[in-house]
Each structure stands twice: as structure tokens, then as C-alpha cells.
Amino acid sequence: MKKRTKLTVLGLTVLAGTVLLSGCTASFCSPSDKAHILYAFDYGVSDYYEASEIDVNEKDPDGELLYRPIFDGNTNVYYRVVVPASGSGVGKTNTDAAKNSVIAPTLQYYEKMDQLVLYSALVNCNPGTPAEELTQNATYEQVITALDSYGYLKFAPATMDDKGILTEVTNDKKIKLWAGWDALNQRLRDTVADPTKDLTADTADDLNIDDLPNNDYLTLYKNDLTRTINSYRSCIAISEGDYGYYGYANGMHYRDADKVSVDIQAKDWGYAWKKGFLEGLLVFPIAWLTETFVHGFKNIHVPGGLAQLLAIFAITFIVRSLMLLVTLKQTTSTAKMQNLQPEITKIQNKYPNANKNTYEKQQMAAEMSKLYKKNKINPLGSLLVMVVQFPVFICVWGALQGCASLSSDSLFNLHLSDSINGVLFNGANWSNGSAPTALVLFLLMAGAQVVSMLLPQWLQKMKAKKVASLGKNPSQKEQQNKMKMFTYIMMAMIIFMGFTLPSAMGVYWFVGALYSIGQTLIIDKINSRKSKKKGR
């Protein structure tokens, strides 16, 4: 295998390893967080209206009433069944079901499901008030508040009592995500078998067995929604609150916005340690500090998107400074090698056939070793720096991806939790301004990375020019080509990942590259002065 091929394979292996290891940082999303996110993607098929804002007698082309009271006898709030769009939620699952010859349940099934969810949410939101009173007198405000507060129980780890009320369970690992939905589905099956168990007062027509989903459809539905939410990991919050923007754009909903923020639980260090060693040691502290900065900047009235940007700037400076302290000796050693480039070049010029002649190769290696020892340089120091940087990079990645605050607000319409490529490849984002922002960020990040990674080679080349060459040195040229190839592979890898990772990582890499440029220039200046004092 040729050496260039080996370097290419090495670069691809590093890239694959990085992608795989990125999954080593666990998601901090709790079952409750996931239930809230799931509800944002599937709130049902019912839109709710205040009676005074609609014509309750309006009919569709088939002569059926468009609006129905949420429960028989309630004249305050009406609902309308909306056919789900084919590209989202139930609509997407129904489309997939048709492609796979799986029979989908009727809209009537989902209508009754929504009524059960509303019934349970109202009772949970108004403890002490008789259920019958709630169904008869609930107002529009009570309906919206109840669903916003407890609609997520539809997907939460929850149990259902004999009255049809869902209660979230947090201390029993056997009761998992989707337990609430399974309980609701079973209740509807029980209603088909025994109509007296219908809790919704028969607002919709009675269900029959043909209205219900079969097991193939249930599996397809759960898999579709699970795949949808698995990419969302922004659940590290230092205070409980509404974060992010979830759901399908342009979807019908009783809320004003197409996408909504959801309630995310606060996480502490104990929770992080339970997730894993790196999560407790680095991921959570970095995320906690980022969250603290964002909240701090917002408290002094800095706009949300700018507060996030400033927080990442601060985090980058802190992380890179701490890494510099840990690797200062090795970093200085690498910089010294740049200043020794004239002497290194002289040695390489003495042995022009070192790449073919074993004796010359051994002699050159001995002189190089002597030079390194004299100047207290460890030629493998740069590898140690990479060993330290790699897990830190992975943890910063996990932290910024997990920060709940970074999934909220936007900077020039760009949400920093969104990947650059995901934004650029969505045509709608070019009109709302987020795609141009993502493109500018990518170009800045890529340009800064190119300069920061090639700067050491440029400095070495400048110093090497001061030494008159005795002729072409194949060994020297081969060594330089190896370094260039490895640098190019690493640079391409970082730029590629910056294109595919959350935009927050693009900001981190941009600021980190500026930091590296400054660090390289400062250390090179210091070492140059020391060399002049020694008369070198």
C-alpha cells in the first residue's frame, strides 16, 4: 500500500471514529422531556375554538357539522377535526402505511383519542373539581392551559386509573415512554368491547373494531415518531422551562405558532454522572457553564440569539485556555521545532539519500534526536496534544448539542442547534434569512480553519528559506508531503463536520481557529526572541 494511500485511510479512519465516538456522549433528554417533544410533533387531529369566535352551525359540503362541542353539554368550546398533512405526524404514518399495505385507523379513532387526552388533562390541571363539572363547563382558556400543561401525558411514562386519568410515573423503570399512549389505546379498545366505559360522553360516534389500529400500524406509528425525535438532544437545562422549537412548520394547531417550545426538566450534576463518566466530567460542566452564560447575558437584556453567540465565545475561550494550560509544554515544544527549522533543514541537507540509504537514515535520525534532546523537545508532543484535544472536542460537541438554551431563540433567524447543511438544503430557509446566515458562518469557519491549520507550515517554510539548500532532498520533501497530507485530511474532516454538525459547533470552531492563530503567532514570537538571545 502506498504511503499516500495509508494517510488517506488513516484520515478516513479518524473521521469515522469521530462520527462514531460522537454518539458516546449520551442524550440528557429524560422520558418526560421526550414526551413533551413527542406531543409537539403529534398533538392529535383536533383544533379547538371558542364558541363565540365560530358559527357552531356551519356545515361541510357533505352536510355534517364542522364543529362539535368538546363534550356533550359543553357550549363554551368546540373542536374541528383536521385531516393530518401527509408529511407530518399521523399523516406521514398513514402515508407510510399505504405504501406498505398496512391498514390505518379511521380519523374517528384519533378524534376519540384526543378527547381522552383532553379529559385527562383537564382533571390533572384542575384537581378537586369534579370531572363532570369540567366536561360541562370547561372554558377555552382551561382547555388550552390543560393541554399545554398535561397533553404530554399522552406519550409519558404514565399509568391510567379506572376513571381514565393519566398520572406520570417517575420512580418505576418498568413504566417507560409511550406507556400513556398504550393506556389510551387500550381504553379505546375497552370502549369498543363495552361502550359503557366511554369517558367522553359519545361526542363522536361510537367506535367499532374496524376503526382501531392493528399491531402493524402501531409499530409503524411508534417507529416513525421515535425516528423523528431521536435527533433532538437539547435537554440540558439548569432551570426548568420552555425551550426549543418543535413540531412541523405550517402545521394546523390550536396554538398561534407552527413550531412550539416545550417544557424541559432541569438537570443537575448527579443526573449527569448517571449518564456516564465523560458526561459527568466534561459534558455537563461545559453545558452548565454555557447555560449560565446565556441566562446571565439575557438578564442584562442582551437579545437571545446574541446572548447565545457571546456564551459560545466565552466557552471557547475558557476551554481553549484550559487546554493550553494542560498542553503548554507540548505546544511550546512544537513551536520550538518551528524555530529549529533552519537547523533541521541543515541536517536534512547533509543526508539527501536518507529515504533510500539506511546508513544515512540512521545518521540523520541520530543527529535529529541529539538536536531535540539538546533543546528539550519531544517530537511526539503533538500527538499528546491531539490525545488531549480529541475527548475534549467530543465533550464540547455533546455539551453544545445538549444545551437547551441554544435550541431557543435565533441569530439572524438561524437556530444554533440546527446543522448548517440542514438549514442550507431547505429551500424555505433562503427566504427567511437563516440559510444566508448559515452560509456566512460556514465560510468564516472554513476560512479560519484553513489559516489556523496551515499557519505552522507557512512559518516553517519561511524559516527553512533562510537556509541555503545543497540540492533537492527527497527525504525532506517526503516528510513535508506527509505533514501536508495529514494536515489537509484533518482540515477537510473538520470542515466537513462543521458543515454537518449543529451551527453552535461552527461558531466554536470559528472562534477556536482565531484563538489558535493568535496562540501560534504569540508562541512563535516568544520562541524567536529566545533564539535571538541565544545567538541562534
Provide keyphrases for this structure:
536 residues, mainly alpha, 2 domains, 3-stranded antiparallel beta sheet, two-stranded antiparallel sheet, 20 helices, 7 strands
Q: Biggest β-sheet, characterized?
A: 3 strands, antiparallel
Write down the overall mean pLDDT: 84
Strand order of the largest sheet: 1-3-2
Uncertain segments are 251-257
Total number of beta strands: 7
- Radius of gyration from the CA trace? 31 Å
Distance between the termini: 41 Å
Class by helix and strand content?
A: mainly alpha
Helix proportion of residues, in percent?
55-70%
Secondary-structure element order, as H and E? HHEEEHHHHEEHHEEHHHHHHHHHHHH
Coarse shape: elongated
Percentage of residues in strands? 5-15%
Descriptive notes:
- By secondary structure, the protein is mainly alpha-helical.
- The protein folds into 2 domains: 8-26 and 270-533, no CATH class; 31-264, no CATH class.
- It has helices spanning 3-22, 31-41, 89-99, 107-125, 131-137, 140-150, 179-193, 215-230, 269-275, 277-299, 304-326, 328-339, 341-350, 358-374, 381-402, 420-424, 428-432, 434-464, 474-500, 503-533; strands at 46-50, 68-69, 77-81, 158-160, 166-168, 241-246, 260-264.
- The protein has a 3-stranded antiparallel beta sheet. Strands 4-5 form a two-stranded antiparallel sheet.
- The longest helix has 31 residues, at 434-464.
- The relative contact order is 0.10.
- Mean pLDDT is 84; it is low at 251-257.
